[in-house]
Amino acid sequence: MTDNDVTRAEYCAVACAEMFSGAGEIMASPMATLPSIGARLARLTSEPDLLITDGNALILADTPALGRPGKVEGWLPFSKVFDVVASGRRHVVMGANQLDKYGNQNISAFGPLDKPTRQMFGVRGGPGNAINHATSYWVGKHSARVFSEQVDVVCGVGYDKADPDNPAYRFLNNYRVVSNLGVFDYSGPGRTMHALSLHPGVTAEQVRENTSFEIDGLDAAGPTREPSAEELRLIREVIDPKSLRDREVAQ
């Protein structure tokens, strides 16, 4: 493989790394393979002060490959994570079983609340994340089922649910969405989803066919930035030498 053979997963990795651009010394909490590659890539390039963990309670001093142990520089027990969440010095990248145009996210259940048809994770940390610090979403398979007109259960809070007179919502920051098709934020009319870029080879029509609502700026979105030669080396040789990224996003 050459630098010219950039895979879809590698475009996604760079887009995930850019979620942390300008973050400084905060805790990154990526919840899947591509966001984990992105956080490590950001730390090795633009954001050296970004804190990453082993996924449990250990703060890593270096940036090991996915699945490999690294040098430990601190201990962060679960109870202390709540202090970090409340401080706002965290950026979480969660998944979504449903995600609507305002950023409401569902990872809990499908169907009516009194008789759900399918039970999933529960709301987990979604509500607390949404109202305390930056929250982004990663969707490895962009489909109309995930990008739905409305969600069955609100876990992560969307902009249409925020009460402007309630100070509890003052830190609501649905920062970005990266999928296998493109990169989006919520700068559209009324804080709705806006297309920032589409990955090379993806068309606006393809995104439209796989989304249940209108995305602002879709036809005008440019291509996602290509990784540099150094970013490709870090992804392929340092962060993900086993190509776990290709299991999450097929070429």
Please characterize this protein's 3D structure:
The protein is an alpha/beta fold. The protein has seven helices and 13 strands. It has a seven-stranded mixed beta sheet, with helices on both faces. The chain is globular and about 45 Å long. The two termini are 13 Å apart. The mean pLDDT is 94.
Which features characterize this protein?
single chain; 7 helices; two-stranded antiparallel ribbon; 251 residues; alpha/beta; 7-stranded mixed sheet
Shape: globular
Distance between the ends: 13 Å
Percent helix = 10-25%
Percent strand:
15-25%
Segments where pLDDT lies below 50 for 5+ residues? none
Rg to the nearest angstrom?
Answer: 18 Å
Q: Overall pLDDT, averaged?
A: 94
- Class from helix and strand fractions: alpha/beta
Order of helices and strands: HEHEEHEEEEEHEEEEHEHH
Number of helices, counting only DSSP H or I runs of 4 residues or more: 7
Total strand segments: 13
Order the strands across the largest sheet as they lie in space.
Answer: 1-4-9-10-11-12-13
* Largest β sheet strand count, sense and barrel closure: 7 strands, mixed
In short:
With 251 residues, this protein is of the alpha/beta class. It is 24% helix and 21% strand.
Topology, pairings included?
Elements: H1 8-18, E1 27-30, H2 33-44, E2 58-60, E3 72-75, H3 78-87, E4 90-94, E5 98-99, E6 105-106, E7 109-110, E8 118-119, H4 126-132, E9 134-139, E10 173-179, E11 182-188, E12 192-198, H5 204-209, E13 222-223, H6 229-239, H7 245-248
Parallel strand pairs: 1-4, 4-9, 9-10, 12-13
Antiparallel strand pairs: 2-3, 5-6, 7-8, 10-11, 11-12
